[in-house]
Design brief:
The protein is of the alpha+beta class. It is about 45% helix and about 20% strand. The longest helix has about 70 residues, at about 725-795.
C-alpha cells in the first residue's frame, strides 16, 4: 500500500527554511536533520529545493504523487522534487521562456535519481499523439542506456555518474514534448583501464558478463570470459554493487537500445567491441632488441598471440596490423617531396600505454556514438521552448585526485558561481539598481577560483595547454610554473615537491583539494597514434570505422574558424595539410606540427557553452546533500552535512530570501500576466498598454481594496514590481485562472454560436449545391445516353419520330416508378443482395411460344433483366407481381432488331431460349442496356439489325419476319400487326423516318 503524503498541518520542523524562527546555521542544520531522520528528505528555501539522499525507497513517487503535485503551487503542498518539475513546466507554458533545472551536490548525493524523477514527472503530466508518446518513451529509455555506459560503482556511490549530462526537452506550442537533445561532458574514460580498489568499471561490462539474456552461442560469438579473468576488471577486486542486478539491468539496456533505434547488428558490434576492450587489458608484452646497420633499439612483441587473434577477430581487423600498431609507431619527417616515414619500435612500457590509450579511445567513442544515436532519434528541426535538466558529476575529493577530479571540480565551481550570481549577487545588485530598500547580505564569491582555472593567458588550463606544446614539457615542469605564477593567489597553495610525486592545492568552495600532478599532461593531450586510427578505419566493422571517422563540427570550429562551414573544402584541405593525420578519415588526431585540441580545451569550451545555455534560461535549483559516507539509511553525519550546507551557500541563500522579495517581474510581463483579474485593467487601463507601470499601480490598488494584498507587501522599482510574500501571489494566480476560465467560456459560447450559425448556413447552401450538382450530373448522364442512342441506331434502323423527339429525362429509365416501391426493392434484394439497384422498369408486349402477345414488364438492374407478370390484384402480403424469368447479362449473346420503324427486339440467350418483345421505350431500353452491359462485362453489347430474325422459343426454332406496309388498320394503342403461321410470325409496321435521321436537340456530352 502506497504511503500517503503528510498533511501540511502535521509537520516535522519547517517545510520552508524561510519560516525558521531562529535564523542561524545550526538551526538550519538541526531542521534538516530532524526532518531527514523522520523520512522527510525534501526541504525548501523559497524556490530552492534541498534534497537529502535517504539510501532507501520511501514510497513517495509514482502516479499517485504525480497527480497530487500536478498544477499545485509550492506553497500549497510539502516540498518535493515533483513540485520543482511542475513549477518549471508551468513557467514554460505561461512565460513561453526556456527553463533549466540545475541539480548540484557532491558525488553520492542523489543527483542522478533526482533527474530521473523530473523526467518521469514531465512524461506523466504531458499528453499527446503517438509521436509525442514516442518522444517521451525515448527520453525515459535514454536513462538506463546512458547509465549502463556512463555510470560506475565508486567508493561513495554505487551508481555514480562518471560523465556530465545536460538533457534538453523541447516542447511544442501545446506543451507536449516533441524532441530533445543530450550533451555529454568529460566521460571518465581512465576508469576503463583501472579503478581504485573497491570500485568497479562501467556497469555495461558487468552487465554483458552477467549473461542476462545471452545464449551460449552469443557468449561464444563475443568470446566472453568470467569477470575475474579480465585484468581491467579484477585489479579493483570488486565485482558486485549493492542494489544493482546486472543481469536485469542488461535486459533494460538492450530494450533501451532498441527503443532509440540501435539495430540488432549495431548492438552485436557494440558487444564485440566491449569484449575486445576487456581482452586488450589481458595483452602483455615481452622486450626484444631490434638491430640495424647503425644502432640497436629496444622493442617488444605481444606475448599472448591467441588473445591478440581474438581481439582482431572481434574488431574485424588484421591481427598482424593490430600487433604492429601496438608495438611500434610510424614517424613522418620532412615536408613536401622530402617527406620520409619510418617505423619506430616501442618499449614494453610504451606499448602498455598505447594499449590502454586505444582501449580508452574505443570506449569513449562508443559512448559518444550512443549519445549521437539518442539525439538522432529525438531530433526535431523546428526550434521551440525547452526545459533543460543538468545532471553533472558532483564535487570530488579523493585520496588521489588527478586530472579528472580537477575538471569535475572546475565545472562544479562554475555551477556554484551561477548559483551565487543568480540567487545572491544578482538579486542584491538588482535591489540596489531598482531603488528598493534593502539590507545587504555578505556572501563568499567563488569567481576568483573559477578565474584561477580558466582565465587567459595565465590560468591553470592555459598553462597546461602551453606545457603540452613543449617537447620537453612534463608534469613536474608544469607544477613549477603553477607554483611560480599562483603562489600569491588566495585559492592556490603549493606543496613541496617530493621524490615520489608532486601536488598542488586549490581552495575550492567545497574545501581544499590536493591534486596529484602526475598524468596531467598525458591526460590533457589525450592523443592516439595515427597507426591505431588507421587500424580502426581499416576494420570491416562499420561501427568501428564510423566512430573513428566522425568529426564533431564544434571541434573543427574551435580549432580553426575558417572551418565553420563543412562545405569549405579549401579550408579543410589547409587543416589537413597542416599536420592532421588520417586525412581520409578526417580524424582530429594531430601530429606535432599542429597545435592539438586538448582535453582541457575541449572541456572548457563545453562548460562555457553550458553556462551560456543556463544563463539564457530561467533557473530552478535542486541542492543535493549526502548525509553520510557509509551509505546507511537515514543516518546523519553532523560534520559532513554542515560542511555541505556551508559550501552550498544555503545559509546565505536563506538570509537573502528572508530579507528579500519572493517575486520580482518587469512591469510589462507582470501586466501581461495579471491584467485580466481586475475590471479597471481589463481590457485596457488608464494610460494604455504603453504604460505598464501605471497599469501595475491601478491593479495593486484594486487588490488592496479587495484585501488580497497589503501596501507593505510590495514595492515599485524603476523597471520591476517586487512582492515580498507568496500568499497574495497564490490568490492572484487563482483569480487569474478563474478569469481565464470565464473568458474561455465566453469565447467558447460566442464561437459555438457563430460556428453553429455558420454551419447551418453552409449546410443549407451545401444541400442546394448538392441537389443542383446531382441534377446536373443526372442530366449530363442522360444527355450522354441520348447521344449514345444516336450512335447505336443511326444508319441501322428507320427511326420513329417519337424516338427522335425524346428528351434527356426519358433516359432516367424507371418508367414504372418502382425504385421507391418496397415490394419491388425487397424482391430484388432477395435476388441480388442488399446492393441491388433498379436501373430501368418498362412495360412490354411479349410474344409467347404460341405467337400470342402478352402484357408484361421488364425490370433491369446492374446485372440482370427480370421478366415479371402482374397479379390481377395485390395479395394480402403486399405482393403484386411474380418474377417469371431472370436473364443475366452474362447469358445474353446479342440483341436483334429489324431495320424498320418497329419497337421489337430479341434477346438471344443460347443457354436457355430467346426472349422477343415490343415496347414503345425501345430506344431507351437498348441504350441503357448497352451501357450497363459494357460496365458489367467490360465488352460491348452486340446489336444485329436485320428484317428476318431467327430465334428460339420454348417450342423450338422459329423466326420473325418484319414487313413495311403503307397502311395498317390499328387500334389506338397499337403500332404493329402480328400474324403467325407455319411456325413463324410476321410483323407488319408503318414506314418511319430515314435511317440517317438525327435526334433533335443533341448537346455536347460535357
Amino acid at each position: 500500500m502506497a504511503n500517503i503524503v503528510r498533511p501540511i498541518n502535521n509537520k516535522v520542523g519547517v517545510d520552508d527554511l524561510v519560516m525558521l524562527t531562529d535564523v542561524s546555521e545550526s538551526a538550519l542544520n538541526n531542521n534538516l536533520e530532524k526532518r531527514y531522520k523522520d523520512g522527510l528528505i525534501y526541504t525548501s528555501i523559497g524556490p530552492v529545493l534541498i534534497s537529502i539522499n535517504p539510501y532507501k525507497q520511501l514510497g513517495i513517487y509514482g502516479q499517485e504523487y504525480i497527480n497530487l503535485y500536478k498544477g499545485k503551487h509550492e506553497f500549497e503542498i510539502p516540498p518535493h522534487i515533483y513540485s520543482v518539475a511542475d513549477r518549471a513546466y508551468r513557467s514554460l507554458l505561461s512565460e513561453k521562456e526556456n527553463q533549466c533545472i540545475i541539480i548540484s551536490g557532491e558525488s553520492g548525493s542523489g543527483k542522478t535519481e533526482a533527474s530521473k524523477y523530473i523526467m518521469q514527472y514531465i512524461a506523466s503530466i504531458t499528453g499527446g499523439n503517438q509521436e509525442v508518446e514516442r518522444v517521451k518513451n525515448l527520453i525515459l529509455e535514454s536513462n538506463p542506456l546512458l547509465e549502463a555506459f556512463g555510470n560506475a560503482k565508486t567508493l561513495r556511490n554505487n551508481n555514480s555518474s562518471r560523465f556530465g549530462k545536460y538533457m534538453e526537452i523541447q516542447f511544442n506550442y501545446a506543451g507536449n514534448p516533441e524532441g530533445g537533445r543530450i550533451t555529454n561532458y568529460l566521460l571518465e574514460k581512465s576508469r576503463v583501464v583501472g579503478q581504485t580498489e573497491g570500485e568497479r568499471n562501467f556497469h555495461i561490462f558487468y552487465q554483458l558478463l552477467s549473461g542476462g539474456g545471452l545464449s551460449t552461442e552469443e557468449k561464444n560469438k563475443y568470446s566472453l570470459l568470467t569477470v575475474e579473468q579480465y585484468n581491467y576488471l579484477s585489479k579493483s577486486k570488486s565485482y558486485k554493487a549493492d542494489g544493482i542486478d546486472d543481469a536485469q539491468a542488461f535486459a533494460a539496456t538492450k530494450k533501451a537500445m532498441k527503443v532509440v533505434g540501435i539495430t540488432d547488428d549495431e548492438q552485436s558490434q557494440i558487444f564485440k567491441l566491449l569484449s575486445a576492450i576487456l581482452l586488450l587489458g589481458n595483452l602483455s608484452f615481452s622486450a626484444t632488441q631490434a638491430t640495424n646497420k647503425t644502432s640497436t633499439s629496444a622493442g617488444c612483441v605481444v606475448t599472448e598471440k591467441q588473445i591478440l587473434s581474438t581481439i582482431a577477430s572481434l574488431m574485424s581487423v588484421d591481427a598482424s596490423l593490430l600487433e604492429q600498431s601496438l608495438i611500434s609507431r610510424m614517424i613522418t619527417t620532412g615536408q613536401g617531396a622530402r617527406t620520409s616515414s619510418y617505423r619506430v619500435p616501442q618499449t614494453v612500457e610504451q606499448a602498455l600505454y598505447t594499449r590502454d590509450a586505444f582501449a580508452k579511445a574505443v570506449y569513449s567513442k562508443i559512448f559518444d556514438w550512443l549519445v549521437r544515436s539518442i539525439n538522432r532519434s529525438m531530433e526535431v528541426k523546428v526550434k521551440g521552448t525547452v526545459i533543460g535538466v543538468l545532471d553533472i558529476y558532483g564535487f570530488e575529493i579523493f585520496k588521489n585526485n588527478s586530472f579528472e577530479q580537477f575538471c569535475i571540480n572546475y565545472v562544479n565551481e562554475t555551477l556554484q558561481q551561477i548559483f551565487i550570481d543568480l540567487t545572491l549577487k544578482t538579486e542584491q545588485k538588482e535591489y540596489v539598481e531598482e531603488g528598493i530598500k534593502w539590507e545587504p547580505v555578505d556572501y563568499v564569491d567563488n569567481k576568483p577560483c573559477v578565474e584561477l582555472v580558466e582565465k587567459k593567458p595565465l590560468g591553470i588550463l592555459s598553462l597546461l595547454d602551453e606545457e603540452c606544446l613543449f617537447p620537453e614539457g612534463n608534469d613536474n615542469s608544469l607544477l613549477e610554473k603553477l607554483n611560480k605564477h599562483f603562489t600569491s593567489h588566495s585559492h592556490f597553495a603549493k606543496v613541496p615537491l617530493t621524490a615520489k610525486t608532486g601536488q598542488f592545492i586549490i581552495n575550492h568552495y567545497a574545501g581544499k583539494v590536493h591534486y596529484n600532478i602526475e598524468g596531467f599532461l598525458d591526460k590533457n593531450r589525450d592523443t592516439l597514434f595515427n597507426d591505431l586510427v588507421l587500424l580502426a578505419t581499416s576494420s570491416q566493422s562499420s561501427l568501428l570505422v564510423d566512430i573513428f571517422q566522425y568529426v564533431a563540427p564544434q571541434a573543427l570550429e574551435e580549432e580553426d574558424p575558417s572551418m565553420m562551414s563543412n562545405n569549405n573544402k579549401a579550408a579543410r584541405d589547409r587543416l589537413q595539410k597542416s599536420g592532421f593525420a588520417n586525412q581520409q578519415a578526417k580524424s582530429l588526431i594531430p601530429t606535432d606540427k599542429k597545435r592539438p585540441i586538448t582535453a582541457g580545451f575541449q572541456f572548457k569550451s563545453q562548460v562555457q557553452a553550458l553556462l551560456k545555455s543556463l544563463y539564457s534560461c530561467s533557473p530552478h535549483y535542486i541542492r543535493c546533500i549526502k548525509p553520510n559516507e557509509t551509505k546507511r539509511q537515514l543516518e546523519w553525519d553532523d560534520d559532513k552535512c554542515a560542511q555541505q550546507v556551508k559550501y552550498l551557500g544555503l545559509f546565505e541563500n536563506l538570509l537573502v530570501r528572508r530579507a528579500g522579495f519572493c517575486y520580482r517581474q518587469t512591469y510589462q510581463k507582470f501586466m501581461r500576466h495579471f491584467y485580466t483579474i481586475t475590471p479597471k485593467t481589463w481590457p485596457k487601463w488608464e494610460g494604455g498598454k504603453d504604460d505598464p507601470k501605471r497599469g501595475s499601480e491601478i491593479l495593486l490598488e484594486q487588490l488592496v481594496q479587495q484585501s488580497i494584498i497589503k501596501k507593505s507587501d510590495y514595492q515599485f522599482g524603476k523597471s520591476k514590481i517586487f512582492i515580498r510574500i507568496p500568499q497574495p501571489l497564490m490568490t492572484m494566480e487563482e483569480k487569474r485562472q478563474q478569469r481565464l476560465e470565464d473568458l474561455a467560456t465566453m469565447i467558447q459560447s460566442t464561437w459555438r454560436m457563430y460556428s453553429t450559425r455558420k454551419w447551418y448556413k453552409r449546410t443549407i447552401a451545401a444541400r442546394k449545391i448538392q441537389r443542383t450538382y446531382r441534377a446536373w450530373l443526372l442530366r449530363r448522364e442522360c444527355v450522354q445516353l441520348k447521344n449514345s442512342s444516336q450512335q447505336l441506331f443511326q444508319g441501322n434502323k428507320e427511326r420513329n419520330r417519337n424516338s427522335l423527339l425524346l428528351s434527356s429525362k426519358a433516359f432516367i429509365g424507371d418508367f414504372l416508378s418502382l425504385s421507391k416501391d418496397k415490394f419491388t426493392m425487397d424482391t430484388l434484394r432477395q435476388e441480388e443482395g442488399n446492393d441491388a439497384t433498379l436501373r430501368m422498369s418498362v412495360h412490354v408486349s411479349k410474344i409467347n411460344r404460341h405467337h400470342k402477345v402478352q402484357k408484361r414488364a421488364l425490370l433491369v438492374t446492374n446485372q440482370n433483366i427480370y421478366h415479371i407478370s402482374f397479379f390481377a390484384k395485390p395479395k394480402k402480403d403486399g405482393s403484386w407481381f411474380v418474377i417469371k424469368r431472370k436473364m443475366a447479362f452474362s447469358s445474353i449473346e446479342k440483341v436483334s432488331l429489324s431495320t424498320l420503324a418497329d419497337n421489337f427486339f430479341v434477346l438471344h440467350i443460347p443457354s436457355e431460349f430467346d426472349y422477343i418483345c415490343e415496347t414503345n421505350k425501345k430506344t431507351v431500353f437498348i441504350t441503357l442496356l448497352s451501357k450497363l452491359y459494357q460496365t458489367r462485362l467490360n465488352k460491348p453489347l452486340a446489336l444485329d439489325f436485320k428484317d428476318t430474325i431467327q430465334y428460339r422459343s420454348q417450342k423450338g426454332s422459329t423466326e420473325a419476319n418484319f414487313l413495311r406496309v403503307d397502311t395498317l388498320k390499328l387500334k389506338d394503342d397499337e403500332t404493329f400487326t402480328i400474324k403467325s403461321g407455319g411456325g413463324k410470325v410476321k410483323i407488319s409496321t408503318l414506314p418511319g423516318e430515314s435511317k440517317d435521321s438525327k435526334s433533335f436537340n443533341i448537346i455536347n456530352n460535357n
